[in-house]
Recover the amino acids of this structure.
């Protein structure tokens, strides 16, 4: 994004600007509205790329078996008006021809060695005189890469000759007799660069005429054919590749294929897919004589009365095209031919998508539907109809079936176009949120935009019923995680990454219990991994998975107990047992830097085994937490240092902090529901109270309390916090105040936690870096 600084003009006119008063304008959200998309071999000659223009940004994706992978996301200093791909004869990769709304253009290539875009050519398409075209800017490239063209002004067409390497020569203008140009396109299979010009006359009738561009004389010559008196809603010219050639003219009620070749053997045909509707009047094809031009041969097909918004070729020979209309219906246009000429046209509706502004067919039945009016989509086209909903069809809307040929694989959110918006502070914490009225027609929606961390999905796998997920390293000094532990209701699976193929697959970890749900797992010192299940704690070799030690909880009578909640770090694991006890365990082998007394004996509590357990797993302390434990966390506040505290959330709607590993009580606080927090903010006299809610006095009733579902100890910018996620979707942040003097210090909860609402469902918390 382009950052700008501008002086504040809010002062009276008779006064100068206030010294040092400036406005700082910056883009808060990247553009998401897709205006153009093309497909080609841009990054490598054997790689297929999807190139998407989003207002002031250019995004390049690589088509992989797993889906689209982002390669380049580059800002453009201007709004993209035209985008085209072309491949010069002496180039192995495609080049990008791009122009902005202010007339600046460039030719971009991709440097595979550096992994960045390279500007091959650049310039300005504007002229000093000329009336800007009402239809907007048009930029096209000859299929034989002999010339690029642009239409910016009425009556003028700018030509940019290209050599065999894609370098541009001196540009020149040619005069067009047609002033109201609707669309322009280069035709395929012509000996000279030939354009088809769709225009409108003074009586609002539309016609199409072809011209040849003479690069030597720098002038236009009458082309091979023309077609007059088209349907009044004709808005697009789609060139058809060789060997068929010609062009498709898209109208609101009729689609016409026109070609001047083989005109001596005219064949007129209309194939209308009426589906209960009568063919539109005046859609029959006809042969006409246009004077000095060759007689044209036209084939037409009737359509619904809806303008087409975008199109994209499916086959390289141009026998099939995807069309999207203003209602968001995706159609397939088939040019039925005998190999040399088009015999008839066939139009089939496939299904509903977003209202498209760009369509690009990728491969294997997958297409990209870019939209400036709603969310963009990646769809798969099926040869047979598929069921899209198990609900009965809505007969009142005319939907007689619930099947479609279109399957939506992925959706890319789009905020635009924003019709209206408002900034609101729903939680009254000074954190404004933007509520937007986004989209057009059936794609309209309300969107909420808030400041936070964005997460981009890179890969996905269908594994229903996941209850937890952790990553493990195969050793203390391993630079990257190797294993992914996934747990379900009654089983645990370990997935491993293959370094050679960079693929992930299931592996055997004999020391782990595979028939139970894992409550917590992580790496511990000594090159080992720890698994906590309801039956006990197990230590295994992180590289081989061999069992090293195990521990199971027992009550004072020696009877086995179960573990309900667990958390741990590199040397301490804390578990909550069914007997209402909180047990702290020392696990693994202490490293030399953590072997001093201050690192493991924070509270002066001995670390020798208390119950005869293995030296790799030793019970340090056992306490009564004062209630049934709902969640707990003992993450270190600083990386590389031992944990100083353990946070515990109770079903009695309160949180407590204990020292680690001695489990001495440090502080406690009760939680309140959102409605109780709002009510507590104003006292009976209408005066605001001191706290912002979330912390009740020790004698206050907890009948309105809400159960904590997740707790997390963390540090932001040097300040320690306890984050509490509750069952009503709220997140409370308690500041932890360190009080010096005690052994290792004590951590007290702040009396005014900041609480924000994240939704209506229970909150889960996980730390990442």
């Amino acid at each position: 994004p382009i950052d700008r600084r501008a002086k504040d003009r809010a002062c009276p006119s008779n006064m100068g600007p206030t010294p040092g008063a400036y406005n700082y304008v910056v883009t808060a959200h990247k553009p998401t509205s897709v205006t153009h998309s093309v497909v080609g071999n841009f990054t490598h000659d054997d790689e297929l790329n999807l190139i998407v223009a989003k207002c002031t940004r250019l995004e390049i994706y690589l088509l992989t078996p797993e889906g689209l992978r982002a390669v380049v996301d580059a800002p453009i200093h201007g709004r993209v008006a035209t985008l085209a791909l072309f491949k010069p004869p002496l180039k192995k990769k495609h080049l990008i021809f791009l122009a902005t709304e202010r007339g600046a253009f460039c030719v971009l290539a991709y440097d595979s060695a550096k992994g960045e875009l390279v500007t091959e050519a650049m310039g300005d398409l504007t002229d000093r005189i000329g009336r800007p075209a009402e239809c907007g800017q048009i930029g096209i490239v000859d299929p034989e890469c002999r010339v690029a063209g642009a239409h910016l002004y009425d009556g003028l067409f700018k030509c940019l000759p290209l050599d065999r390497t894609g370098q541009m020569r001196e540009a020149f203008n040619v005069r067009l007799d047609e002033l109201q140009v609707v669309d322009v396109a280069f035709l395929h299979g012509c000996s000279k660069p030939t354009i088809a010009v769709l225009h409108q006359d003074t009586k609002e009738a539309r016609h199409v005429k072809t011209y040849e561009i003479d690069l030597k004389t720098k002038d236009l010559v009458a082309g091979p054919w023309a077609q007059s008196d088209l349907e009044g809603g004709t808005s697009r010219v789609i060139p058809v590749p060789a060997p068929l050639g010609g062009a498709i003219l898209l109208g609101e009620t009729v689609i016409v294929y026109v070609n001047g070749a083989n005109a001596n053997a005219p064949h007129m045909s209309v194939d209308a897919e009426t589906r209960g509707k009568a063919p539109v009047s005046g859609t029959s094809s006809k042969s006409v004589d246009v004077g000095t031009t060759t007689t044209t041969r036209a084939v037409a097909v009737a359509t619904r009365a809806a303008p087409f918004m975008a199109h994209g070729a499916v086959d390289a020979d141009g026998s099939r095209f995807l069309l999207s209309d203003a209602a968001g219906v995706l159609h397939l246009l088939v040019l039925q031919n005998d190999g040399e000429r088009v015999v008839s046209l066939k139009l089939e509706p496939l299904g509903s998508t977003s209202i498209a502004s760009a369509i690009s067919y990728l491969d294997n039945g997958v297409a990209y539907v870019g939209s400036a009016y709603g969310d963009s989509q990646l769809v798969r086209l099926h040869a047979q109809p598929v069921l899209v909903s198990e609900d009965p069809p809505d007969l009142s809307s005319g939907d007689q079936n619930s099947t479609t040929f279109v399957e939506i694989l992925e959706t890319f959110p789009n905020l635009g176009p924003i019709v209206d918006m408002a900034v609101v502070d729903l939680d009254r914490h000074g954190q404004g949120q933007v509520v937007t009225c986004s989209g057009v027609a059936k794609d309209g929606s309300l969107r909420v935009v808030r400041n936070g961390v964005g997460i981009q999905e890179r890969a996905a796998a269908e594994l229903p019923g996941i209850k937890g997920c952790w990553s493990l390293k195969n050793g203390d000094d391993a630079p990257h995680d190797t294993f992914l532990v996934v747990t379900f209701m009654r089983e645990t699976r370990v997935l491993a990454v293959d370094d050679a193929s960079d693929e992930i697959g299931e592996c055997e970890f004999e020391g782990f219990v595979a028939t139970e749900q894992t409550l917590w797992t992580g790496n511990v010192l000594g090159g080992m991994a720890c698994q906590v299940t309801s039956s006990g704690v197990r230590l295994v070799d992180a590289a081989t998975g061999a069992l090293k030690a195990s521990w199971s909880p027992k009550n004072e009578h020696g009877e086995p107990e179960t573990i309900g909640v667990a958390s741990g770090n590199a040397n301490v694991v804390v578990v909550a047992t069914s007997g209402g006890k909180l047990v702290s365990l020392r696990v693994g082998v202490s490293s030399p830097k953590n072997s001093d007394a201050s690192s493991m004996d924070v509270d002066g509590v001995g670390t020798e085994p208390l119950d005869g357990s293995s030296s790799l797993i030793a019970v340090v302390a056992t306490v009564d937490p004062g209630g049934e434990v709902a969640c707990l966390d003992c993450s270190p506040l600083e990386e590389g240092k031992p944990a100083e505290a353990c946070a515990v959330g109770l079903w009695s709607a309160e949180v407590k902090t204990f020292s680690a590993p001695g489990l001495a009580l440090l502080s406690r606080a009760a939680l309140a529901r959102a409605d109780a927090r709002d009510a507590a903010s104003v006292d009976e006299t209408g005066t605001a109270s001191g706290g912002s809610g979330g912390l009740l006095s020790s004698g206050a009733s907890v009948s309105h309390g809400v159960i904590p579902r997740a707790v997390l100890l963390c540090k932001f910018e040097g300040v320690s916090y306890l984050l509490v996620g509750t069952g009503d979707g709220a997140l409370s942040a308690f500041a932890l105040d360190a009080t010096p003097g005690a052994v290792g210090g004590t951590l007290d909860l702040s009396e005014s936690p900041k609480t924000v609402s994240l939704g209506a469902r229970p909150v889960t918390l996980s730390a990442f870096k």
Notes: The first strand starts at residue 4 and ends at 7. DSSP finds two helices and 54 strands in the chain. The chain has a mean pLDDT of 81. The CA atoms of residues 81 and 729 lie 44 Å apart.
